[in-house]
Amino acid sequence: MSDNGFEKMNIQWFPGHMTKAQRMIEDNIKLVDAVCEILDARIPNASRNPDIDRLAAGKPRLIILNRTDLADPDVTAQWKKHFEAQGIKILETDAKTGKGVNGFVPALKELLSEKIAEYAAKGQATRPLRVMILGIPNVGKSTFINKVAKRKAAIAGDKPGVTRGKQWISIDKSLDLLDTPGILWPKFDSQQVGEMLAITNAIKADVIDKETLAANFMLRLRELYPEALIARYKFEPDPELNGFELLEQAAKKRGFLISKGEYDIERMANTLLGEYHDGKLGRISLEKPE
Ligand code: G4P
Asked: Which domains, from first to last, does the chain contain?
């Protein structure tokens, strides 16, 4: 166990896919007018590619904070302020229901108003704007694009780590989107970031130890949202307990008994992660801006 009580985890990455995706971005960046990053509103930092400033090469940028339905609204407001202070435009969405998605085209037109005027001055007023869509796997890219396109233009599915080839999607005569395969961090050296990605399903859950992940998640919940544990699992999280013991407490309350006095921690780990995924713990953000 590490000093702060969090268990050490070994989280695997897919460097081959990442290198390929980075190269694809580098090769295509010159074809687009703007770059749109889709982030998970619960983990805007961990779900962001740290190389994006270099990869986006000075292009106008829009950040979409997606999954706002699952994120803490107060924290999402803090992130919005944080990014806007860096001159980056923000759109908040819940791509699953489509909330906020209608703001996408107007936001792009505002972001690219100079470019639009430039095309018009050159007599190219009908030239469509081209925008690259970036995001880690499973962040909701396909769902978002399908909502914008009002048709099934991108392949959606819960398969983190599975990459697709790039594709151009015509939204209307004024806008083309370049959908890219999911990109993860090119290099991975922070356990905390890996955990955030695993908790939110960006990393395949079967390549990691779910019990350790859930134990560490319990510690985070005790620190950030103890009221969620009380409301959902009906126990007051004792500050003295470690993550596994907290899982055991929850298992006890749920009646996940294996034999007399022994509780099913594995089942509780799956339950906790599944219920977070489904929003049953309430709206919980795992990162705040520094
Ligand atoms: P990707 O292209 O970036 O890989 O992601 P994709 O659109 O396939 O979305 C991954 C999952 O996330 C999908 O769920 C999708 O419905 C869900 N999703 C996308 N945007 C949102 C959002 O704003 N809020 C919520 N709550 N979910 C969102 P799925 O695989 O079909 O199943 P499930 O995760 O809904 O169970």
From this structure: 16-179 (3.40.50.300), 209-277 (1.10.1580.10)
